[in-house]
């Protein structure tokens, strides 16, 4: 590609994020969404679903560290983990680094995302053939309704609540998630941005509050998402994300992380005042 | 303005941030830099120096809360505060909310920035006529070399180390800052981004380490800066930013903040692992 190629992710009608593109590696349209993989300048390879940046090689560790290691270091002995979505493979890759994990079931609706990442972004997809990963191409909403398995931790690694991910933000789905969690189970979900999408956060947390005794929001910094400050929700049947977190387990694990660490674990639950105000009554952060 | 007007801030040659512009309110060129104020869609009024976004009405509270209230709630009795730069007025506005502060001296090199903000962004500039603010149009580098005054807290609210702000990142400047701080003084400085400007952070922290017994980095989320995760450095003659922070003083102050709060104060010093690795030996965060 010799022309000056850029891609732009628009947010609403007033913001655009432009990334320099060196090469288009894959471009397809599944029955669910468009799927593109590009080689960028400065951010490595990048996956886009419906034109929205999902992961880049440069910063994917931030998202995957924080979605996986926060619940897996709170639950004292996570053996059976379910990932809904997460087709790039980065979340499953981090989940199976925990020696307690016997199996990571991953239910991704869109085979095209998995195949594109296996072929072009091995950095995230490299553990999808690991025997501990049970990859199911299917509908996560249907899966949690029908399965008789119980999971210690469920991770909802979804896109925004448009397109195929929309039901993943609803009450019926979370009722089913509750039912297939063990009695001390935890669910963590992609939780959008307090800067630009407080309305989605409020709506998701209202659902979690109806279904779970405890709900929290925690933050991290995503380099390539609009606004940078991004969130995950943490809903739990029993464990408090800070009081039941044993920092010693992080060093005992021998694992090293580029983003996550034991200080950041608790710090991530300290939210800016405007987020606390906007989510008042919906989160148990303090 | 009826055409479809956008402005773009480029970062290096691989990233662009585009903002929808409704109206250009001011556009000038001083002896130091270009100065623009635009009315955006979605981010309110926006100040740009040399084409780089400085403040927007939508998110300026994050930057100004975190540059001002972190040092002012660590120092037990800040009376005399110096702001270098900060021509938009937002930092001085936050400084004088502390009842202990008798005077906030502000040394801004570029009268055009001050005048443009007074006229077009009263949200940040509204306290510049307050009798507690002693606004000096002049060179901050020269000021700290020549003044015989002593300050409890100095805040270096500068642009990036290009153009007029370049000397504000050097050792000679910080030696002079050290000399005009009281014996328990604190200096906080605009500290760039660990994502995109680790090299500048390293170079600034090397300088601070030579001059001060303790140096730290703390983070916050800036909606409109490239990458979102932004930093301030905290260098101190005596006080530890967490151990000497008395959270009770925040609630006792009666002040309310849209970004800062007492949990976030300490949490801001918990850095992602990649930042800790990149700044190893240069920060005393833990």
Q: What can you tell me about this protein's structure?
A:
The structure is a homodimer of 286-residue chains. Chain A is of the alpha/beta class. Chain A is built from ten helices and twelve strands. In chain A, the strands form two sheets. A seven-stranded mixed sheet of chain A has the order 8-7-6-9-10-12-11. In chain A, strand 1 and strand 2 (15-29) form a beta hairpin. The longest helix of chain A has 15 residues, at 60-74. The radius of gyration of chain A is 18 Å and the shape is globular. The model of chain A has no long low-confidence stretch (mean pLDDT 96). At the A-B interface, strand 2, strand 11, helix 9 and helix 10 of A face strand 2, strand 11, helix 9 and helix 10 of B. Chains A, B: It catalyses: S-adenosyl 3-(methylsulfanyl)propylamine + putrescine = S-methyl-5'-thioadenosine + spermidine + H(+). Chains A, B: Belongs to the spermidine/spermine synthase family.
